Amino acid sequence: MTERTAPPARAAQPPSSPDPVTARPPAPPLTGPEPAPPFTGPVPAPVLQPVGRLRHDWPRTFADRLTAPLPGVRALARLAREGAVRPRPEGLRDIPLLPFEPGPLPPAGPDTVAVTWAGHASWVLRIGGLTVLTDPVWSRRIFGTPARLTPVGVRWEDLPAVDAVVISHNHFDHLDAPTLRRLPRHTPVFVPAGLGRWFARRGFHRVTELDWWEAAELDGVRFDFVPAHHWSKRTLLDTCRSLWGGWVLTDRSGRRVHFAGDTGYGHWFAEIGRRHPGIDLALLPIGAYAPRWWLSDVHTDPEEAVRAHQDLGARRMAPMHWATFVLSSEPVLEPLTRVRAAWEKAGLPREELWDLPVGGSRVLVP
Known about the structure:
Blueprint: E1 3-5, H1 73-82, H2 89-92, E2 113-119, E3 122-127, E4 130-134, E5 164-166, H3 177-180, E6 189-192, H4 196-200, E7 207-210, E8 215-218, E9 221-226, E10 246-250, E11 256-259, H5 268-275, E12 281-285, H6 292-295, H7 302-312, E13 316-320, H8 334-345, E14 361-364
Helix pairs in contact: 5-7, 7-8
């Protein structure tokens, strides 16, 4: 494989956001999507970072990147008092209706962009001749949650050789150690700043850590790490010790896929679209959003996801982060019905909403 990289110029960054599976930040009631402020001035061109280089100059904490405060004692007490962490029984009745239609992976050559939803935030993305996994979670259960609602959409043994993995942040539903142990240790892994040591301790030796707005290139495919409104935490002692974000993957022809990872709604989407114009497909989260007073800062609801898609200037949107794990209190089928309604209300072409079933695939036609 050929590879290029080096650090992009650091842009001034407003504080960023919180949002885990293990601890939820509270926020004031959301009255409407935060408007995207105008951005002016030239877009800095990042210098490509070297693939496979761990860095040791990261700050001790990335808490200054949060775009909302982490939850305090009062918020945790309210959550415990209300018990609004799982759907009511009537909200679970539609589990048998969750879309699950596994099929064979579509053929994909060097000029093909194809996506297959394995469930939650896990995609099998073929771009520029590479097979890339996003936040791969093939486990039946993750820490702190009930078992999967739907099986994994692609059996591990049916995967083609994995050429690279991208990780958005370290929450257990996005960074799954049992799944990652299945990978050869020479697999290139692209991770947020501060997370490289976690992989190095597990024997991975082609780990590339990136800050926001930095990029690396592998075999002609460019991996840009971009901001998200979220946070990080995996243990009691590592809150915000590593960064969080999304990825923009670009092939030699300039076709782009944005994988948002896990995020709330906010100004970053417009800035990502400004720096990466012409996004062909945005993979955006639509679930784990209720109650809003608890999760609005870190998880988009379906209407906000559609707004984020518009801010990005993307041509198509594929929803994710729903129908897999029970992480919050909305009814299990509600994210799909609401995103379809929001898409129609926005007057967007129906064929550009790729609301795939778990295991479903689509191919991007140039």
